Every structure is written in structure tokens, then in C-alpha cells.
Amino acid sequence: MSGLSKNFRLPVACPSCGSHLMRVSQVKNPDDKVFCASCSRFVCLYHEACTVLEQGPCSESEALIEQAVNRGDR
Q1: pLDDT of residue 72
Q2: Beta strands in 1-74 (DSSP E)
């Protein structure tokens, strides 16, 4: 999936490895699966990830990191 996918950062970490970097297909359909970019574990569906991103990070430092990583990807 690496050539046809986009990486983005979620404020919620992967339950397996703790990474915040996630991967989804470039199409970004609501029912596309989101995987951890580090360990490839299924994390959630894309529409669920969008809901988490809309709710926003819980701290100012998380917000700055997400803004830097996710710029122009949505």
C-alpha cells in the first residue's frame, strides 16, 4: 500500500507500538482502513480518523506537531 497511500498523524497513538503516524489510501474513502505506518496494525476506518482529527489534540504541543505533519494532506 505504500505507493498508493498517504501518511498523516493522529493524536491517538497505535495500541501496539505507540506511533502516531498513520497510513491511508490516497483515495481516502470514508470506509478505507487506516493502518499504523510503523507496525501496519489496523487502527480504525478513515471516517473515524477524521472525527478524531476534527476533535483536535488534547494539548498545544500535540496541536503544533499535528499541524506540521498534516499540513496540506487533508
Answers
A1: 63
A2: 5-9, 21-25, 33-36, 42-45
SS3 of residue 65 by DSSP:
helix
Low-confidence ranges of the chain (pLDDT < 50): 1, 74
Are the CB atoms for 41 and 16 separated by under 8 Å?
Answer: yes
Q: Hey, which residues does 7 pair with through a beta bridge?
A: 23
60, amino acid identity: E
6, 73 Cβ separation under 8 angstroms: yes
pLDDT of residue 57: 65
The whole-number pLDDT of residue 50 equals 93
Is there a contact between 44 and 34 (Cβ–Cβ < 8 Å)? Answer: yes
In this prediction, residue 73 carries a pLDDT of 55
Residue 34, CA distances (Å) to 4, 16, 41, 74 in order: 13, 14, 9, 14
